[in-house]
Amino acid sequence: MERDFNREFIKVNRILGKQASIGPIPADQLGPWVAIVVLCYVITNGFLSLGLGWFFGASFWLIASWWILTGNQPHQFLDRWRNPPGTEWCNGNNIYVSPIPDHRPTWIRKRYGDARVNIRLKPVQVPNQYGGKSTFMPFQNEVNICCIAEIKKDDREVAALLLEKGKYQYQLVFGFRVAGLHDVLYDSEVSAFAHAIEEGMKELPIGERITFCTGCASDDAARQEELSTLAEECQLKPVSVLTRNEQLRVQQLAQGGTRQTWNQLAFCTWTSDDEAGTQHKDLVGGLIERLRKTGSWVVEQITGNKRVYQEAFFKKLLLQGFQQGFIQWEVLLNTKVGLEVMPCSAADLWQWLWSRFNQGVAPPIPQVITLKETETGLELTETVTTDKHLCTLLVEGTQGRAACPEHRGDHDRIYLTGRGKVCGVMTMTDPPMGWTSTREHLKWVWKILSSSYVHDTEAWIEISRGNDFFIQDNLARQAKQSKAARTIAVTKGQGRDVGAEIKQEESFEAQRRLYEGTKALHCAPVFLVYRNSAEELTHACNLLANSFETAKVIRERHIAWEIWLQALPITCKRLLHGNNLNERRLTLDTHTVAGIIPLTMPKDIDQCGVEFLTGRGGKPIYIDLFHHQIGRALITGTSGSGKSVLGWRFAMEALANNIPVVGMDISSSGNSTFKTAIELLGDQGAYYDISSGSSNLLEPPDLRRFDKLERDRRMESWKEFIRRALSAIAMGKIHNPHLAQRVDALLIRALDIFLRDPEIITRYNRAFEMDWRSPEWQQIPTLPDFIKFCTRERLNLRSFEDLDRHSLNQIQSQVSALLASRLGKAIARPSTFSPEPAIKFFALSGLTNEQDAYLMAINAHAACIRNALSHPRSLFIGDELSVLLRRDGFAQIVGETCATGRKDGIAVLLLSQDPDTICECSAGSQIMQNINYRITGRITSSGINSFQRYLGYPPNIISQNATEAFLPRSSDLYSCWLLELGGRFWRTRFYPGELMLASVANNQDEREARDRVMAQYPPTSKGRLLGLKAFADEYVPALREGKGFSHIGQDLSAAPLGRSPQQKDYPSDPAEHDQRSLIAR
């Protein structure tokens, strides 16, 4: 029977980590009780000779007091008496001591010898104001890191943190960037990942540990830098202003905790002994190693080559660390567990360490030991950029501000002065009872961390193998105790001891799993919460503690400083594993451990582009149509779902990268969503109603910027498109395959002769050399010039058949009829608009005849393709073209653009209310197969079937788009979108900038309100920006509060150039206006 992973309950066996009692005595209490008895006997009888009565009385009183005070968790009582190190930590200004003796200065060798690497510093005693002394403990004493090690072998570059664990005993900590499990998985993926994790965790190396770290931070530095670069390099000032305004929006989202950058890392250890080999050996192997070490020591003393042996030691250390440590961990994570991991480089590890203590970009790596494989063998080198120890550089701070962590005498928090944060520590004391399904099992930690009230939080989970013998023995003893308790209950006539029965069943179940191959694991789940103040931290910890359902997570109130140190990979300490009397770590088996490992996180799509935020977690997801590859995107959604706002953001992304945009839509009465936004660009933006102007169908693209090979290729693309357009004109509504085939052949021949005619070439060249307003432009060849070439004589047709005659007559009659109509004047005259604007949009309005609309659309599309071919990269936008796609010819043109436009650098963005029209048109499969990104907004309940039928979307995923939760939320200014790429889904939100949102508001009352405000400003680039700013200042609050827009623009008086009713003086440069007015509000 097939398992249902969506309904299978996964139960945590909590008895696995509990200690069996020794009779009535809890196992954790046995040691302290023995110590108390011995101490009482020594004092009462050894020193005071008080007799056995005093001995038994004192022992009983102390044991009972100890039991009452400590209970089941002695560490909570003992930790109360532990104080943070000294009065405060300080920067010990430690110097770097190279692990390789030959690389050390002479004075270091004389002072510290060749054996010591990390120098332990003495506490600093400083007189205080109370007449005493304050003790400051060097922070360098808390860490074990020596330097960063780099291994270059087998065409691999691997980095690790080199820690000194003891004398001649080192530990390598390898870092991996983890691309975890996506948060939206198919059922088959859920079962596969669950099985892979369970099997992979069984292979954990004994004695080593892996620590998973998943965290989020309100850090927008990278995005701010990217947007700043776009704004500075953009050639269009209004677009720069809108980009700067988006920077403000990003900053607000980050400060509010809505936008979070996420990271997933895994730190894996490999520990060596004092001979650079693995420390895990059996008894015989250990004896042999001792004999070999003794022999090596004797040889070193006799020959005096100790330093040579030490250099060989580190070569062997790094080589075996690579072979036995890194390779083993990489295979385990990549192959067995099935995760996508990438090893961290030395720069990655150093930047990550720097970010733990400081802000910004890290300085050069202070010290790196490199083992490099060369033709002559292995070569060990060392790169040192400063004599300061790596830890000293981390905590000394920048720009006069120290970065040394502080505890300030507090037991429950750490102050990270270099980051301006306060850190609280939370630990999981009890695991959850279980999970309702395997799907919930895999994403449990993600669901908690991605809650709307959780931000700036990290989950650290350290996992290591447990001792199978001790755990099995402990389970067997618990089963026996439960059996004895049941027998006693029956003997005394108390009936059934239900608690003992349950405990016995759980013990048997745990033993059964272990005998079947499941392994027991020690797990240390810790959560680090960062806030700006202690008050915020307390509130955040309280919220987080109540988010774990049946699991128990509490805030560490006594030794937060120590657990925070244990979480650093630059120490050898194990997480939640100190010298306490009881085990603080949880014990789970490989079947259930996946539930507390933070592996789930939405995967990235692109590295830059238009930014979305995931609905849970607020992780930035980017869609890039221009850089990594030329992309195609389809945006679908009902009216009011925010399609136009999102579509304009893609256009703005192209313009910000100095990529021209061409588009077409079917608007009503000339009112398009993009009209106001395009008019902001002045001469660089052109919005044309194709029915009131003219667009020369035979105007070629301007290819003068390309080399001859690329110019010829692009000209062929244009000729192919014009051939299709002319064929559509010639054939009209006639469906005759033989005639259509001959018409195509004749048009190809006519175009070739036409474009090679010397007079035609001269007229084209003169038109492009002069301005589009010049008389030469009016002499550019047009459709009437081309029709003259459609004769038997000009085409030089030697064998002239009846089909040829019919074909030429068809071409001439259809073109002549078109030239005599109003439509002919629109497409057969020189273009009445410039070929140069950065964005051109063609509105198809006022066309009631289907054939005229079709031909006009072809002409508008020709203008779009012409402009696109004139540039290396471009963006074509088709807005609501459902009516035109029903015509086979136009659908084939759009299909060809999607299929072959990539080689011409043409990115495509289509906007539609549903996928039906596109999928049902004649080129539907061609269009949809070449769409990379499918972006779906709010849909109707009846539209769910369309997405299931045409796009194959699972009903449980697409049905959420039809709920009220997917409606745009005006109060927070965002719209909801389902992204799909390659069968993978992301649930996201789009947060537009306020100015951009105001520029494309397209409801009738919104347009009227905007027109009232814009009318009071001069029609210049600066005036339009000032008007848009004034409108946004009133529009956005009204939109958030749902007040309506009738009051907007009613109380404004006409403003002179450069002055608005709200502000007195504005700079003349739009960029300066941006910085003073649009950002600093």
TrEMBL record:
Key word Translocase present: no
Coiled coil (UniProt feature): none
Region (Disordered): 1050-1081
Transmembrane segment boundaries: 52-69
Biased composition (Basic and acidic residues): 1066-1081
InterPro entries in the cross-refs: P-loop_NTPase, T4SS_component
Keywords per UniProt: Membrane, Plasmid, Transmembrane, Transmembrane helix
Protein name, as recorded: Uncharacterized protein
